[in-house]
Amino acid sequence: MKNKGIIYVLALAVFLIGTIEYIITGVIEIIAVDLGVSTSEVGLLVTVFALAAAIVAPILITLTINTDRKKLLLITLGVFIASNGLMFADLTYETVIWIRIIQGASGGIATVVAMAVATRLVEKEKRGNAIGIILMGLSSSLVLGVPLGTFFSEMFGWRVLFVLVGALIVIPLLIIYKKIPAIKEEEKITLNMQLSILKNPTILMALVITLFYIGGYATLFTYITPFLQMTSSLSMTEISGVLFLAGVCSFVGSKLGGQLADAKGSKFTIFLGLFLQGATLLLFALAGVNLWVLILILMIFMLATWSISPAQQLYLVTLAPRNPDIALSVNTSFIQFGFALGSGLGGFVISQTSVLYLNWVGFAAVSVAFLVAVVLF
User: Fold this and answer.
1) pLDDT of 322
2) Which residue has the higher pLDDT, 144 or 100?
3) Stronger pLDDT, 13 or 235, i.e. the higher one
4) Three-state SS letters, the chain
């Protein structure tokens, strides 16, 4: 594969962005105490990040579609770095909400542009693999970002983590500046050309799949720490270890999903992932039976969920080969809408009933995605 090193640098940038998005998951209780708000209100910090990435990012990408992709990537990474620096101040909950919106918008654009750039730096038959590597960066934030964040936040505080991760993004930013060439569209893309993608019923149905399978995932995983605390006797340090294992599985799932999509096709990979994701959400009902059973179910759940994403991205790129940026942007928006839907639903469920019901709501969402896939494919 051409430019493999650059692809991994882009994956590093996406890894750090993903760490900032998901880090709330591991330290949700600590932030709640520090800001003096409830757990469900801290969950809103995940929701607003996702909504900003889902709504603001595609609008800005649409408006800048004829802009040099390299320049856009550098600008958005710069804004993302600055927003993380602001988190070090002793801010109110309302101010943190606004910073998370800025992080979601800039991080969302950077993630989409990184994937689009990756597909243009490799051979056509390797695009699925390239997307899988970028998404490995995203899933790696669960491998290292969330558990390490959970561990170190107890020693240094959660605010320091935001500043540190923001500073680390300077590394890929400098490499991107030096190594990636200017990338512009060969022909000018009009607004009508972009909107035509959303008029395609096949693309719209594929986006519905994204919305609901991510929604089902986020319903449970946003609150996985309190779920594990409720269903086991694990300490916070032990939960960090479990989250690390879960992250390893998400990392492997992203890699395998990209390879399987290139080898067996995106439709096969999506079907398999959705089936396993739904089955494991049902099996979470056995969580209180045995700790090792719970951990095994969680590992398969992560493998399945993250194997779907590169296949879904590749499927959409093949549906819109002339405008991969827009296809990836819209799908990434629906991924973020899914996170917003899931974290919002999860917050509602635990505020009204119990964290133990989250897997059932997640299963309902994934079932919708599976049925839409049956109709579409």
Assistant:
1) 67
2) 100
3) 13
4) CCCHHHHHHHHHHHHHHHHHHHHHHHCHHHHHHHHCCCHHHHHHHHHHHHHHHHHHHHHHHHHCCCCCHHHHHHHHHHHHHHHHHHCCCCCCHHHHHHHHHHHHHHHHHHHHHHHHHHHHHCCHHHHHHHHHHHHHHHHHHHHHHHHHHHHHHHHHCHHHHHHHHHHHCHHHHHHHHHHCCCCCCCCCCCHHHHHHHHCCHHHHHHHHHHHHHHHHHHHHHCCHHHHHHHHCCCCHHHHHHHHHHHHHHHHHHHHHHHHHHHHHCHHHHHHHHHHHHHHHHHHHHHCCCCHHHHHHHHHHHHHHHHHHHHHHHHHHHHHCCCCHHHHHHHHHHHHHHHHHHHHHHHHHHHHHCCHHHHHHHHHHHHHHHHHHHHHHC
